[in-house]
Amino acid sequence: MPTFFLRNLLSKIGVEVQFFKFFEYKNAPNVFTEEGFTRPHREQTEKLVGSIFDQIISGIAAQRRLSAAAVSKAVNESPLSAQEAQAQGLVDGILYTDQVGSRG
């Protein structure tokens, strides 16, 4: 998830952005006022991405009846071949496009 910081660009075109910052972890204005991640901004972004990742892993694990550790291991070993994904229980079968409709 890329984050673009606009402070230098805005400065070059003469725009001065002003925000009031009340709390350390309120970082929405940072893309306009900073040149990069502040420590709290980075921490919050990493926690958000980690939480989303954990939810995806848990969802796949539940649907595929696998442990979260097994799914996480497969993600870390990716990319997998179709055969490897099937062997690890991530897919039910391997078909060509023309075979998909006939699988009833």
Any chance you could write out the topology, listing elements then pairs?
Elements: H1 7-12, H2 30-33, H3 39-64, H4 68-77, H5 82-87, H6 97-100
Write up this protein.
The protein is an all-alpha fold. Helices cover 54% and strands 0% of the residues. It has six helices and no strands. The chain has helices spanning 7-12, 30-33, 39-64, 68-77, 82-87, 97-100. It is elongated.
Count of discrete alpha- or pi-helical segments spanning 4 or more residues: 6
The biggest beta sheet, please?
A: none
User: Given the helix and strand composition, which structural class is it?
Assistant: mainly alpha
Order of helices and strands: HHHHHH
Assess the beta-strand content as a share of residues: under 5%
pLDDT < 50 stretches: none
Anisotropy-based shape: elongated
Percentage of residues in helical conformation? 40-55%
Average predicted local confidence, pLDDT: 86
What is the total tally of β strands?
0
Query: How far do the termini sit from each other?
Result: 38 Å
Q: Give the radius of gyration.
A: 22 Å
